[in-house]
Model the fold of this input.
Amino acid sequence: MLIPFGKVQAQGNDFVMLQLLHTWNTSLPLDALARDICDRRTGVGADGLVLLLADDEADSRMLIYNSDGSHALMCGSALRCCASLLNRLTGKTELLIATDSGLKSATVQERQISVNLGKPVLKEKDLSLEGVTGSVVEVGNLHFVSIQNRLEDQELEIGPRLESHSHFQEGVNVEFVRVISCLEIEMKVWERGAEATQACGTGAVASVFTGIGKGLLDNEVWVKMPGGEVCITRLENGEFLLAGTVEHTFSGVYQWRI
Done:
């Protein structure tokens, strides 16, 4: 089976994207396809598989599968990649995208894409697991955010244990954060279903939300991640904007032997 695709990345958080705006659904076995096409040795290679489908209420519907084949409810980086692709296809700079976590708005200014991820929810505060303490925050998906004095690859050692911890029945994304100033933080992430990634948009929002709640951060913060920087802004109504660049790296046709 030949599958046309585009490869798009946001701060190194990379995705294989299928443009299916002509249909509302697909019969493709997406869990198996995600595992195969996202494999960095035998496939295209990516953190996740993203589909753009037709939608009656929005410009498109975003559907995400992690590289391990599991379904993801939300991904801020993928949402910005979708907005960038839709802008290229339609010319629109103001977009509405349906997700499994609700309708999300996006604004496109050349390669700079801003998305509104709504109001994060603090689910648990000062939760201690696997020797670290953090906050559990929902941003359309679940995050465990731990603020540290130093970042020493804790995401590689502790991230996998927290992701599969019995406390989180459906897994969790894990962020370790170092506060540089009230305007800047450093963040490393272990993503549910994708392992250590170069960036995580919803994780950046969850981290800034946590820092603001602890009185450590202002309402506009730059988040430094291994793959690059994004800007997180808390609006007066409590909603959070995620802004950063997006790059279309290449397109191709994947020959899937199922």
